[in-house]
Amino acid sequence: MNGVLPVYKPANMSSAQVVARIKKYLNVKKAGHTGTLDPFATGLVLVALGKATRIARFLLESEKTYFATVLLGIQTDTYDRTGQVTFMTLPSQMASITQDQIKNAVSQFLGVQEQVAPSFSALKHEGQPLYKLARKGIMITKPPRTIKISRIDIARMELPEVDLVIQCSAGTYIRSIAHDLGQMLGCGAHVKELIRTGSGSFTLDRALPLENISSEDSRGKDQFQKRARDCMVSMSQSLSFLPKIVASRHLAEKIRHGQPIHAEDTQMSMEPCQENSYIRIIDKEDHLLAVVSFDSQQRKFVYACVFAG
């Protein structure tokens, strides 16, 4: 199997465990996810299979969409419901917070900003994940990172709970948004529920639910494999956000032999593209032949990865 499989991750499972289970159920040797989702969270995890593991890096930077339930009034060390309570606001203070205050605070997250990741995160410090250090009582604060929130809407407000729909750049921590919201309101907050509903062009409604199938259940495994094939997205369609070149027979042959590609080779079929951006080259049947970038000075394309051969 070569393609990207959108999977509906259940709660209390790491993204690595999702990949391990998919490899076992589908009998594939090469697989990897395109972005970690917290174990307590549910929702969309993209699993690249076979040759598609080579395009995972292009999917890592895709925008993500989340549905989050934020609980105001209680702060935890992990910024979510799994952590230890570090602060709890007084009922009188919580009662004084108005919906207008919350709306105003939420609106301030829109746009480009600097965000500090939670100490309980998969980011590394001197080669070790922060969460492993945090479990030992070593709380490391990493430098702020630039993120972008392109959408943040309040879907429901029944205090002390607030439901948010958030569309954001890769690497954004929804837990940090909840924590920072609590700080702005002076009451503390954490993420109670988190669902990833989208990643780039992939949406949760097209994802394959991850089942628990025993090794002896061959029928269950066969049915899962059939559903997986139905949900699988081809490598070319997985990169539909990239400009494309439809290769002529001559161009396809050059790619198969690893020969240099010049602008003149693609003049008739190339869509507009920017300097240093990636472009997918496909055949007339929409099979992915290569991913390239364009060097305007030398007027030629630079191979990022090649699949024709």
Largest sheet: 10 strands, mixed
The CATH class of the largest domain, by name, is Alpha Beta
What's the pLDDT, averaged over the residues? 91
Distance between the termini: 17 Å
Number of domains: 3
Task: Tell me the name of the CATH homologous superfamily of the largest domain.
Answer: Pseudouridine synthase
Shape: globular
CATH fold title of the largest domain: Pseudouridine synthase
The helix-and-strand class reads alpha+beta
> Fraction of residues in helices?
10-25%
Count every helix, treating DSSP H or I runs of 4 or more residues as helices: 9
The low-pLDDT segments are 268-272
Radius of gyration from CA coordinates: 22 Å
- The oligomeric state of the chains shown is single chain
* Relative strand content: 25-35%
The helix-strand sequence is: EHEEHEEEHHEEEHEEHEEEHHEHEEEE
The CATH architecture of the largest domain would be: 2-Layer Sandwich
* β-strand number: 19
Q: What would a concise description of this structure say?
A:
With 309 residues, this protein is of the alpha+beta class. The chain has helices at residues 15-26, 56-60, 91-95, 99-107, 130-135, 174-185, 218-231, 235-238, 249-256; strands at residues 3-9, 31-33, 42-49, 64-72, 74-76, 85-88, 111-115, 124-125, 128-129, 145-158, 161-168, 189-199, 202-203, 208-209, 244-246, 261-262, 278-282, 288-295, 300-306.
